[in-house]
Amino acid sequence: MAGQIVILNGPPRAGKSSIVAAIQESFDGVWLNLGVDGFMAMTPARFMPGIGLRPGGERPDLEPVVAVLYRGLYESIAAHSRLGVNVVVDVGHHDRYSSPLGILRSCAAVLAGLPVLFVGVDCPVSVALERRRATWGGEGFATSTQLADPVALWHEAVHDGVTYDLKVDTSVVTPEESAALIRSRLATDPPPSAFHALAIG
């Protein structure tokens, strides 16, 4: 039996990592965390931020690498699921590159036939900014950024035109409550289908 896949898609500081931790702590079975933070840790410095490349088309030289790295991530997710391992994935998909890459649709095709719950994770921009200040003492972006408002752009781009099986706002629900909502959705009919619809949409 294939392992369950839960994909948490949202902007940085939306609370995805805390939900991952809650799932790993409270769900039965093995839940492997595969996502942006782990893959960025493995990415050579000259290709950083890898799959964490933010929207705005600032680094077109990295975009071909980003597409390949995303493909590798999702091939790994599929391989673990086929071995019966449950996988929770925290990512920030967008298509605001210098030109659209269609990465999310390609990734959906990789997971064809596997059980996927697609969860949108969000919070108000003001909450994300406060979390950045609490963590880094600032907004977390270099002052030389070419983007006028990179935080707001993340929040806009990551959910642009995307349909989810479930959405959570981490400004009003805790990580544990978010995990409980995910558990409940996994247990109800109809089966999740939003991610697979991307591949044929």
What would your notes on this structure say?
It is a single chain. This protein has 201 residues and is an alpha/beta fold. The protein has one domain: 3-Layer(aba) Sandwich (Rossmann fold). The chain is globular and about 40 Å long. The model has no long low-confidence stretch (mean pLDDT 92).
The gist of it:
It holds the Pfam family CPT. The protein has 201 residues and is of the alpha/beta class. Helices cover 42% and strands 12% of the residues.
Give the key terms.
globular; Rossmann fold; alpha/beta; 201 residues; 8 helices; five-stranded parallel sheet
Shape, principal axes of CA atoms: globular
Helical content class: 40-55%
Strand/helix succession? EHEHHEHEHHEHH
Number of strands: 5
Q: Major sheet, described briefly?
A: 5 strands, parallel
CATH fold label: Rossmann fold
Strand content: 5-15%
Give the full name of the CATH homologous superfamily.
P-loop containing nucleotide triphosphate hydrolases
Radius of gyration: 16 Å
In CATH, the architecture is 3-Layer(aba) Sandwich
The number of domains: 1
State the CATH class. Answer: Alpha Beta
* Number of H- or I-type helical stretches: 8
Structural class: alpha/beta
Strand ordering within the main sheet? 2-3-1-4-5
Organism: Tenggerimyces flavus
Pfam family, one: CPT
Protein name: Chloramphenicol phosphotransferase CPT family protein
